[in-house]
Amino acid sequence: RKEVEQDPGPFNVPEGATVAFNCTYSNSASQSFFWYRQDCRKEPKLLMSVYSSGNEDGRFTAQLNRASQYISLLIRDSKLSDSATYLCVVNLPSGSARQLTFGSGTQLTVLP
Amino acid sequence: DAGITQSPRYKITETGRQVTLMCHQTWSHSYMFWYRQDLGHGLRLIYYSAAADITDKGEVPDGYVVSRSKTENFPLTLESATRSQTSVYFCASKAGLNTEAFFGQGTRLTVV
Asked: I want to staple A32 with a disulfide (CB 3.0 to 4.6 A). Which of A46, A75, A91, B4 is the partner?
């Protein structure tokens, strides 16, 4: 079983739609969680951190469910510029450092 | 400029040659990482470092060597390049155990 699993998609949605991505992680000792965005094999860029209480940044809302070991990302009012691959990232305790472990990514295409 | 930079951005090398990819960060982050990303695949951890002179293997370390004599630099060396090491390589750094990571722009390596 992969340590971080995501639905690879692709998700094709019209502009203005609401889309949600889920991600599950296997290590209950994981301490911190993030969503990153990656465009066309450029470097991943932090979209938002995910907190236990849930957090929102404009059109983006992230949720964490520790009991079920999943995190989610909700995008409202999708824009063409939201088209990208969204990476679920979990800080796993390992050795001398907490490794950032990446899901394989969910591809989103927002259609005009 | 502050940030994390990789060099070179593009590299073509021949099978069997040694090649070193450079990574430099100006934040004095403790943790640094090397990932590779192949077409159609997610990010896979090669090596990571918790501090100067402390390095650990990641998921796919074979054929690679790292060093970290200074906090700000984390070079990755392919001892004898193989075609299977053709990939995009990303360096990343983070300040603390549970913090987010920041990525360099990547090095596209082609082994012919």
From this structure: A91
Q: CB-based contact (8 Å) between A1 and chain B?
A: no
Q: Do A97 and B105 touch (CB under 8 A)?
A: no
B41: three-class secondary structure by DSSP: coil
User: What 3-state class would DSSP assign to A98?
Assistant: strand
User: Is 90 exceeded by the pLDDT of residue B11?
Assistant: yes
What tokens appear for B23 in the block? 């990574």
The string of pLDDT tens digits covering residues A68-84 is 999 999 999 999 999 99
From B31, B37, B103, residue closest to A97, measured CB to CB = B31
Taking residues B54-81, report their average pLDDT: 96
* Mutation to test the B interface, candidates A35, A99, A104, A107, most B Cβ within 10 Å: A99
Contact A80, A65 (CB under 8 A): no
The β-bridge partners of B35 are B45, B90
Nearest one of A36, A3, A5, A97 to B103, comparing CA atoms: A36
Cβ proximity of A104 and A7 under 8 Å: no
CA distances from B35 to A77, B98, B107 (A): 33, 18, 11
CA B103 to chain centre: 10
